[in-house]
What does this fold into?
Amino acid sequence: MPALQVLNLSRTSIKSLPESLFKLFNLRRLFLNHCALITTLSPKIGELEQLEVLDLEGTEIMYLPKEVGKLTNLTCLEVSFFEPTSRRRLEQSHEIIPCGTISALSLLEELNIDVRSNDNLWNASAGEVASEICRLQRLHTLKFHFPRVELLSYFNWDGEKMSPSLSYFRFTVGHLVERIISRLSCDAELELERYDRYLKYVNGEDIPGEIKKVLRHSTAFFLDRHWTIRKLSDFGYRNMLQLKCLVAGECNNLQAIIDGDQIESPSSDATVGLVSLEYMHIYCMKNLRSIWEGAVNNSSFYSLKYLTFSTCPELTNIFTPGLLANFSNLEELIIDSCPKITCLVSCDRCDDKITFILPALKRISLHFLPKLASISNGWLISPRLELMSFQDCKNLKSLPISKAFNENLRKIEGEHGWWQELKWEDTHQDSWDDIFVPID
It folds into this structure.
């Protein structure tokens, strides 16, 4: 088939490429993604000089042959290095990506490099590869692991523009450690992948200036196991103006999300808060005590639609009365395994004119909150409310809902015994029985 231009062998059990493939001199696109049995790529790949797309994502190759540098028409290269360490040691004579290979591909527009955690050969090669990437003038899409923060300095992040000019990136910065079980939920992982410019900072200390520069251009940020940070706002508000998605977990020294005094301080570089943020997921924070400290800035969290707190053992409440207005667009609230929470809203009601809170809320899930005694401190919750879910909230004896006010409520989930013990002020329990769904 000498005229063949596209060949897709993805997700097959092939172990190597047949010799006849390298005679397809008109081949433009070759897809081998998730061919897990392929561990080497023949040097003859360089004979496919018309190739524009080479997709090796999800394979287990040990290194790229230097002949890939002959594919000067490539516009897209995707490659994964996921081989076992023992097999890697047999190939010590090979560089994971030979010097000069990437810089030779001057037409590259998209480059995705995926590496195994704790890959020593990649850690040694990443700097040279990063320096070559910076010479690719047409590049607009990049997935890359920077094992050391200082490697970010190869790129120009100053001002409003980047060099190279990337409209789409997936950056992981820091030393990766392979984990048997990830504590991050699948929903949060999928949410992070939705965004065009995604920064993951893992196992970090302090707040390097290079991270701040990249963060300024990011729309999604995952802070994974930072060892020293006490407030997320320490990254600088102006550096997070574009953030739409924020996920943070296992930062044992973190005590608050926002320090409002940083916003209003004359010496601060920030005048506004997290104005674009739509999704926030906070999990496994050993010492997190509050979402906000200091003065309230009215623009932070105003765009937030989805909020989750999971496994935060020192967290006692979520909102203060003065902060509630900032969450007027919140649509979903999930609180899970926060054993010290007694009320979602702190007890000092300061505005008698408020009749209900969280006006846009549609879904609320409260699970494993054994000390929770009140949801809203007497206020009704959102007329748009559609779903309420409860589990192991044995001290919660009443719900802030009304038949006349919450006409859109269609489902309440919880244990049957807990449901039977609830007390109602303006209606009888049996008027809600038709939408109650027992979970035990």
User: Anything to note?
Assistant: The mean pLDDT is 89.
